[in-house]
Write a structure and sequence with these properties.
The structure holds two protein chains of two kinds. Chain A has a domain at 7-250 and 332-340. Chain A has 20 helices and no strands. Chain A has helices at residues 8-27, 29-37, 48-59, 76-84, 89-117, 135-138, 144-152, 155-162, 167-183, 186-199, 207-215, 222-247, 251-262, 273-278, 282-297, 300-306, 311-325, 331-340, 354-378, 383-416. The longest helix of chain A is centred in the C-terminal third of the chain and has 34 residues, at 383-416. Chain B has a domain at 47-307: Rossmann fold (3-Layer(aba) Sandwich). Chain B is built from twelve helices and twelve strands. Chain B has helices at 2-17, 31-40, 62-77, 131-139, 183-195, 251-260, 271-276, 280-283, 304-307, 321-324, 356-361, 367-388, and strands at residues 47-54, 85-89, 124-125, 158-165, 167-169, 172-175, 179-182, 201-207, 223-227, 240-241, 246-247, 288-290. In chain B, strands 3-2-1-4-8-9-12 form a seven-stranded mixed β-sheet. In chain B, strands 5-6-7 form a three-stranded antiparallel β-sheet. In chain B, strands 10-11 form a two-stranded antiparallel ribbon. Chain B is elongated and about 95 Å long. The interface between A and B is medium-sized, with 24 and 24 residues. Chain B: Belongs to the peptidase C13 family.
């Protein structure tokens, strides 16, 4: 466990971020309303508007899941109900605080990871030439607090925070789990992964890399495995029973899972599911559902196995795949991914498609709202336009994930066999 | 570390003390039933219909088209929706090849208001405006496949405004130069309507030559009629548009419209005031009103009773027992409603900020609910604190 707390640079980042968010909030109050309705930033699972609907139903004594509008976890209800008793600005402050906390955890992860990388050796092979230093790796120019800047000042994060997307709680759970796993705190990391899985089902995939992180190359892994699984199961059961007590029915479990796994709500979003399932015949629906969902989950174990020596990297790749192929992605997932990428900045020099993917991302993010306007308001476009922009977005993410993987593998190869560092490697 | 933990816990507790407010239960009483009955008693009609008939066709009868369309715009402005207006027009003026400004109908040479506009809903047009269709419309004896927009779907609580304009004579009205309807036919049609309970009250307005003869034969109750000219008199047109080459409005209708310009849906202007405003020297004929079949004095009948579609809204703070039965889990197990006031005084009125219905449904959260709420908040606060530190 690291002993150096984040320095005052983090406070600068946090202060600047809060100033920007609060400034934008007070400058144009309808910005929050407008952003809160944009489908790029909010989905049926993270929309704050639906949150208020669920709160209203809950306050009126009804089951919030009855209206088929509210799919968020039941434990949000007491939390946001308490927030509602305060003036509305406190809701904004809450989302802002969550953003800052995510950045805080990112800084801890970075501090941990940077400390490890400088002394880690890949695999069990030492470099062939011991006198060969890797100056670009050891003298890491990036400070951990810079991650806070990258994450908090990313315009995607700012807009996502202003849109009051409840995904930030999910992101917080994921980064806390990663941080505690890096620090070796088993029960805490399992608890937070349980929270993340309880909120949206997909982080359950992160159990694999986090398990590897916790085992940490010890030969005696069985007791750790048992303890972690027990902690995970116990936390999950505890959370579910607490939500049952809040809501009073098992809809707290079935309703969000229905939407996440069976994709019953077909509101357009930045993902690839809605377009297909809008026009699918019922006969084929289950087949395609299995195909799509399996595509998301199937990469978890192979990625973990391949990168069992860099489990944090495996976690980031799995997060990237999750962002791509989850049923209701939004910009919030992307901003978390972009916040985690600088952890592996040593891979940037190995990445070949940087220009392409940055441009594709920008095109997608500019065209998506344009085509949305053309489709919905003007009536001169149709859903294909918007879906094409979504596909470009997905393509850019795929490029990112694939390029990162390739960069990591290349770096591994270079460290194992320094002789091939500048040469093109061809597999025979 | 520990003091901060306790502080965080207390903070979360304090913030959610206000969150689970206990709302007052409301009890039902005899008041709401009385309120509902009183609401319906004085206003005996619940909906308004308008039947506007222009019985002429051809370009030189432009003014009759303009008459009817002006009345159409007026009743629409005062609140009667298109679904409650039956407009019968020959509809050959706006797109007539002789119309210098096609697609428009004006009632003033200055052409400042286009009566035709973008959203005129003509129900019977062209050759469909016949005596048979008119009488079938009034009596409701229409073909089973008549569309809904061509039916007069009035009930025994409807006030119907019937306006007719065109060429007429002593006891008859000419329909489209081909046939005529007599005052007896009209009286019988109204009698049929009364028998079938198809109206509560009728306002019959007619603007033709010798119009007052049209209403002399009525014998059904609750009809007030007004005509533009007496027997032996003509009704005259008012403005002549030298640009279009035709007269664009008739005098009687014009002076009615002039009076109605100052009336909106909130006005309490009465029919007495409207009828008193007629000046025979300006109208060049003697309009008259027949009220012997109408029970109420005209100075107590507001114009919006016939010409407007005003919804009466009254807010009640508590639900009547009969409606309370529809909504489950309203916490009022009150005794049955009695006519005299119940022993308990009207229950504590709920705070003004929240509507009655929502309050009625929420019951005070049990100690179990509150405990769960606080517990969740405590858990959330503690876990976030511990994860960050």
């Amino acid at each position: 466990m690291t002993t150096n707390p984040p320095r005052s640079r983090f406070l600068y980042a946090a202060g600047l971020a809060c100033a920007i968010r609060l400034g934008l909030y007070y400058l144009s109050p309808e910005l929050t309303q407008t952003l809160g309705q944009r489908i790029e930033f909010v989905t049926p699972l993270t929309s704050f508007k639906r949150m208020t609907e669920g709160l209203h139903l809950h306050a009126a004594g009804f089951d919030p899941y009855d209206g088929n509008l509210y799919f968020q976890p039941a434990l949000y209800l007491p939390l946001f109900q308490a927030l509602r008793t305060l003036p509305p600005v406190f809701t904004m402050v809450f989302f802002m605080a969550m953003d800052v906390l995510v950045a805080y955890q990112l800084v801890w992860i970075a501090a941990n990871k940077f400390r490890r990388t400088s002394t880690r050796v890949v695999g069990d092979k030492t470099p062939a030439d011991p006198s060969c230093n890797f100056p670009e790796d050891i003298n890491l120019p990036l400070q951990p607090e810079s991650l806070a800047f990258f994450y908090l000042l990313n315009p995607l994060t700012i807009l996502s925070c202003l849109a009051q997307s409840t995904l930030i709680i999910n992101s917080f759970a994921i980064v806390t789990a990663l941080r505690r796993a890096l620090e070796g705190r088993l029960i805490q990391s399992m608890f937070w992964i349980a929270v993340a899985s309880y909120i949206s089902f997909y982080p359950i995939m992160l159990l694999f890399p986090i398990g590897v992180l916790l085992i940490n190359n010890q030969p005696n892994y069985k007791p750790i495995l048992m303890r972690s699984l027990g902690a995970f199961a116990g936390s999950l059961v505890g959370l579910l029973s607490l939500s049952y007590m809040v809501v009073g029915s098992f809809a707290c479990l079935t309703s969000p899972l229905n939407v996440i796994l069976l994709v019953t709500d077909l509101t357009p979003n930045l993902g690839v599911y809605w377009y297909f399932f809008i026009e699918m015949f019922d006969h084929f629906r289950s087949f395609f559902l299995i195909a799509f969902q399996m595509h998301t989950f199937i990469f978890a174990i192979p990625v973990t196995i391949r990168f069992k020596n860099q489990p944090l990297f495996a976690a980031i790749i799995i997060l990237g795949i999750m962002t791509l192929f989850k049923s209701y992605p939004s910009i919030g997932d992307m901003s978390l991914l972009l916040g985690l990428i600088p952890l592996y900045h040593e891979l940037f020099k190995y990445m070949r498609y940087g220009f392409v993917l940055i441009n594709a991302m920008i095109y997608a993010l500019v065209l998506a709202p344009l085509f949305w306007h053309l489709w919905i308001y003007q009536g001169s476009g149709n859903a294909n336009f918007f879906y094409a922009a979504t596909l470009v977005y997905a393509a850019s993410q795929i490029l990112l994930v694939v390029d990162l993987t390739k960069a990591q593998i290349k770096r591994e190869l270079n460290r194992q066999y320094p002789a091939v560092r500048d040469k093109l490697v061809v597999q025979e | 570390m520990k003091p901060y933990l306790i502080l965080a816990f207390c903070g979360t507790l304090l913030t959610c003390i206000g969150g689970s407010g206990v709302l007052a239960d409301h009890g039902s009483s005899a008041q709401p039933e009385q309120q509902v009955e009183n609401f319906f008693r004085p206003h005996e009609h619940t909906n308004n219909w308008a039947v506007l008939v222009c019985t002429s066709r051809f370009w030189f009868n432009y003014r009759h088209m303009a008459n009817t369309l002006s009345m159409y715009r007026t009743v629409k402005r005062l609140g009667i929706p298109d679904s409650n207006i039956i407009l019968m027009l020959a509809d050959d003026a706006a797109c007539n090849s002789r119309n210098k400004v096609p697609g428009t109908v004006y009632d003033h040479p200055s052409k400042h208001i286009d009566l035709y506009g973008q959203n005129v809903g003509v129900d019977y047009r062209g050759y469909d405006v016949t005596v048979e269709n008119f009488i079938r419309l009034l009596t409701g004896r229409v073909h089973p496949q008549t569309p809904r927009s061509k039916r007069l779907l009035t009930d025994d609580k409807s006030n119907v405004f019937i306006y007719m304009t065109g060429h007429g004579g002593d006891g008859f009205l000419k329909f489209q130069d081909a046939e005529e309807i007599s005052s007896h036919d009209l009286a019988d049609a109204f009698a049929q309507m009364w028998e079938k309970q198809r109206y509560r009250e009728i306002l019959f307005m007619v603007d033709t030559c010798q119009a007052n003869t049209m209403y002399t034969q009525f014998y059904s109750p609750n009809i007030v009629s007004v005509g533009s000219s007496a027997k032996g008199e003509n009704s005259y047109s008012y403005f002549h548009d030298h640009d279009l080459g035709v007269s664009v409005i008739d005098r009687f209708t014009y002076f009615n419209l002039e009076f109605l310009e100052n009336v909106d849906s909130h006005s309490q202007t009465t029919f007495r005031q409207l009828f008193d405003s007629y000046d025979p020297s300006l109208i060049n004929s003697h309009p008259a009103v027949r009220t012997d079949l109408y029970p109420k004095p005209l100075d107590q009948v507001p114009l919006t009773d016939f010409l407007g579609g005003v919804q009466n809204v009254e807010l009640t703070r508590t639900l009547p027992q009969s409606i309370a039965e529809w909504v489950p889990s309203i916490g009022s197990a009150a005794p049955p409603v009695t006519a005299e006031s119940s022993t308990s005084p009207p229950s504590s009125s709920p705070p003004l900020s929240e509507p009655a219905t929502l309050q009625a449904v929420r019951s005070s959260p049990s100690w179990y609910q509150t405990m769960v709420q606080y517990g969740v908040l405590a858990l959330v606060g503690w876990s976030v604190w511990v994860s960050v530190v």
